[in-house]
Specification:
about 240 residues
Length: about 240
């Protein structure tokens, strides 16, 4: 068939069409092969039984893993040693949590800093949807006990210099600090999906479908800059 582009272009067009045809044929063969394997599986009771047994084992293992995670506090966003009246040493609680779980996200915050509420809202929801990671928060204002142990020790050892800060821990190592919102667009109006991608990038969260991208997060999490003083972080004053 002459397409009106001359002999040279005609040959190129024919070659391209031939390549596309071969690609389509390969794809058809792949689909046919998969369908044949499925038909063979349906016709082979022994193979079908093995498939069902393997699938059941996978589901049982998944259920067992999720049960272990929930027993260790996964699925929630927990406060560690909430006040001076709490008999627990927040530093000891921190090390216990990081020993029990491979992936831990720790939010160091001050209740008096409204910016911390942004992380509270996002982390609460992410923790519920991602059982593979442990989410906790530490109040640095009022959780040192009478012996002087607690949040101030962790702040010093982990190099916490601004509020709020997320410390990302993978296999008992602090792999990254998220200080304020600088990595999230520099604004408290950042979408939850941006935080999810940041956590995935540092291997403290498993990669999932972009389950938050379809949400109208900008409107849901909008903040009045006057309320937070028009700043992104509050620097810790050391004595």
């Amino acid at each position: 068939m002459d397409l009106g582009f001359g002999n040279a272009n005609q040959r190129v067009g024919s070659a391209a069409a031939s390549v596309l045809l071969k690609v389509a044929q390969v794809q058809e063969l792949t689909v046919d092969d998969q369908l044949d394997q499925f038909d063979d599986l349906l016709n082979d009771e022994e193979a079908l039984s093995r498939f069902r047994a393997n699938r059941l084992q996978e589901l049982q293992q998944k259920h067992s893993q999720e049960k272990q995670w929930r027993a260790a506090g996964h699925g929630s966003y927990e406060e560690l040693a909430a006040s001076r009246q709490d008999s627990r040493d927040v530093a000891q609680e921190f090390f216990r949590v990081t020993k029990e779980s491979d992936r831990v996200i720790v939010h160091f915050y001050r209740p008096s800093t409204a910016l911390s509420d942004v992380f509270h809202k996002h982390l609460q929801k992410i923790a519920h949807n991602h059982l593979e990671s442990r989410f906790v928060r530490i109040n640095v204002e009022d959780c040192d006990n009478e012996d002087g142990k607690g949040a101030s020790f962790l702040v010093e050892k982990l190099g916490i210099i601004v509020m709020p800060t997320l410390v990302l821990i993978h296999k008992r190592k602090a792999v990254h600090h998220v200080r304020g919102f600088d990595e999230l667009g520099g604004t408290p109006d950042f979408p939850m999906s941006a935080l999810v991608r940041l956590l995935v990038a540092h291997n403290v969260l498993h990669r999932e479908e972009e389950e938050y991208d379809n949400e109208d997060e900008h409107n849901e999490c909008s903040w009045n800059s006057k309320r937070v003083g028009g700043v992104n972080t509050i620097r810790i004053q050391r004595g």
